[in-house]
Amino acid sequence: MKEKKDNILKHVLKYGIYLFREEETNKALKLQETLKEEEDFIFFTVQTDSSKRIAIKNSQNRSIGLYHLSKKGDEAYQTGKYDTCIESYRPILDTQKNVGGGMSVLAMVKIGLSYMQRYYQKTLKQDLMLAIDYLTIAQALSKDKIGDFHTEEINSSLEKLIFEKNRKFSSISINDFKNSADFQFYKTEIKNFLLMGSSLEEACKMFGLNEESQNILSLLYAMECYEQENFEVGDLFLESVRENERSYLVTSLLIEVKRYRKKYPSKASKKLILKS
7: Cβ–Cβ under 8 A, 6 or more apart, which residues? Predict the structure, then answer.
């Protein structure tokens, strides 16, 4: 327990927050009891879609220039300097005693979105998980509007991040992936752009999806076309899968789709039918 406690506190001191998983509730309560006399950490509960979860936030008593730091952070975010944005908003978050207050939640949003953009640049799992934790807490604490960011925009960003986590760090079958709520969301939205004549690459860029996301959608659309006996278009989707962004999931899906295609080596093509 001591090692786990030390790791959690190190995480909080370095990254600002720690969102306990549902299965860690008992550990969270024990840690809260252990630290009840400490003023450097604030425990609070957030209601997520699935359950109530406990979180811990760093807390510091010091005087800072809120306006100067928030302005600096906003300018950094707008110019793509996400590390600077995080560094600017962390002191704001650390000094807020009211976790649900507007400035505290705004700081979580800005930090969460900065980690999200950093993930899209560097594809580091740590950035992805921090973005999800920050935005999950902000979503739970927010009402209608957080600074310049509406809750709908936060929800959309969070959906994309969770989709990305499930896509890149999970191993599931193509049927499970096809039936997931995350894929159904992108399948419907992106397919509308395809029907209007956009390429899959263009559509993915509109949704901020990276190259590997495009690979996965290509494979899923290929399988869908094969199931509709539209082999010519299915082959085009299959051939569009790029080799420089292959996670274990992409590789396993590619093997499964190719295995399915080999069952029908001489099938004639049909007209493209994109069913919703």
Answer: none
